[in-house]
């Protein structure tokens, strides 16, 4: 072999790589294997993509959507039931329609999920997508139908107007009105002041009276809490004290129709009109402490000036004007016997009364007043401050009026002098053992 041929063969083996025993080089073998592998991959069926699991945000969104649908349906159905009653054909028709729509939506959701899993195993992705589109379309139609029905119900609910003329129960049949003396604006003559003789919790001798008060003689305010449903729920009344005159009580109450009973739940659904009652304490407190057996407590409010008491009294007169001009609905949460008083008191107290959750938990109103500095911490000036336990013990009305006779001393309903004396006796009796604070103006 010549020298040029030897070097040519040597360089050729380095540049082309090693050859196999059958004379084929290694590079060529590797290319053949790669080509065969690609051919197999091209003939193999495509792999199905693994379904991605929804994230926690998806489940949270679904939960809130479901909760919203259920709560909105419950609200609408309860409004229908409290307005039309369980015997109305309309009540049952709307109930079945709403339940049917929600049941269909739920069934669509469950069926869609189960169907997708089954189709993922048996069919291709194109069929799954077409199935999804059809299910989504039906779901949108159902949701749109339910939304339209609910919005119609919402509009109907807020179109319900309170009424002045119904078959009212005797104790709320009349509305308090008033006139001012032309020569002395402090002299207010109130008509339809209630002064019933209560024999039982439902039977009473009716008496509506006219009474004239002098606002310049206002001497203080008392808050009365009457517990009838455990320690959290109480009815709140406000009594205005006068110099040398018996107190006058005001109470925001539901205006019940004959045969109607109170329901806290129904109070959310425009079932009861709101009523303002001006009454003698011998009537409106006695019926709770004695006739009904509720636990009643009276708290004298401290650290008040006369202009604040006058402004609060004026706010009651304004409320009477507004209710006489246009009746309003009672609402268990927003317009009840306690928080209406709080709204008025904040207007005249220069925001000395802070917002607090106890405004909506009426049974804890005395504790709130104590913490806000509206109850004297040392009312009897003994040096020993009163705790709330002491306040509740001293202000408990029931033991003080346990044997009180609600009837007038003489069997004469027009004996005004006996009437006034008997009313004053009750007012003095419920304040036994309670130091009555003077107004801050009177201390100077």
UniProtKB/TrEMBL annotation:
Q: What is this protein called?
A: Lnb N-terminal periplasmic domain-containing protein
What sections of the protein cross the membrane? 58-84, 90-112, 133-158
Lineage of the source organism? Bacteria, Pseudomonadati, Pseudomonadota, Gammaproteobacteria, Moraxellales
**Entry keyword set:** Membrane, Transmembrane, Transmembrane helix
So which domain of life are we looking at? Bacteria
Keyword DNA damage annotated: no
Source species? Psychrobacter arcticus (strain DSM 17307 / VKM B-2377 / 273-4)
Domain (Lnb N-terminal periplasmic) ranges? 205-362
Q: Does the keyword Transmembrane helix apply?
A: yes
